[in-house]
Specification:
The protein is mainly α. It is 68% helix and 0% strand.
């Protein structure tokens, strides 16, 4: 859910979004944003290597 909030907020700012603005747009804390980014990066890595992420 956090990753989706971040993706939607970032999609509204194609030229980039500053961290403070991202926090305001999503209502998430720095720790929640970091966790979501880490989750998304791991999921992308698994997709690239063909590993299952368990989401199927």
């Amino acid at each position: 859910m956090w990753a989706g909030k971040i993706a939607r907020a970032m999609g509204s700012y194609p030229n980039g979004i500053k961290p403070k603005q991202l926090r305001r747009e999503t209502g998430l804390t720095d720790q929640q944003i970091e966790a979501a980014v880490n989750w998304n990066n791991e999921r992308a890595r698994r997709h690239q290597t063909g590993e299952s992420d368990g989401a199927e």
